[in-house]
Amino acid sequence: MPENSPESGIDITPQAIRKAVEGRVHKSNKVHKISLLAVLQTCQMIYLETSRLLYQANTFVSLQNSIPIDFCNLALPAHLSLITSLHVHFQFREFVYIWDTCPGRQDPDPYNESTFHLVCRQISQSMPNLRALSIFLQGPLVQPKTYDYISSCLTSMRDGLKDLYFMAVRFPHLALEELVAAVSGLYEDDLRRTYQRLDSMRDRFHVLQPCVGNDRQQWEIADLDTGREKGWRLGTMYRISNLGLDSVEMRNYAIFTEAEAFDEHIEKHEP
To answer: Which pTM value belongs to this model?
Structure first.
């Protein structure tokens, strides 16, 4: 069969490719010197440009409570300072019976207010060039004072991020609203004070809450406790809408975390 006939196949074995390339390359026994410094500088330039593109052009997403702390402790400060967009999903686990029986007790790490305070402090100190921040707080939240503490942490973090121009925080409704409906007037003052505090923060950043509908149970809008951070994680990421800073664009997500992998992570943070 003729070599160039339509029926002939194309030999793409490594040996055939090597033979074809060698036939087109001029062989030389001369030794050429290159500048090692120039090679290193080129590699450094490529590394810096790639790192800058990675950190500046992407939104970093944290779906477990202690991830921002671990990430800020492990990543290089120069890289953290390049981050411009961040989304944080933080889960609280407050239970009415725990607070009734042990008033001074906090939920264990990493679900308590102390961990949330560390997260806010790390973000404020490690990401000075952050420009867009989205936070999804998962409940249930029971006590008004927890709302006050969270609000204080968020306000301090907002003040520390000088270049931040967009910030949106999703709060669950207080689980106390169910008790107000059951025992009329018993907790109304606490709820009124809490939501006045939320209203006062609307000038600093966007405050969002689940819509209250007739077809939804009170514990749904206050968030059901889903246990440890494993299984399905449902939340919403917020960003600036094309309509301007006064509008918020929402993007829902559902992430599955394997129980076995997360149990090992939790053991490192529990006493």
So the answer is: 0.74
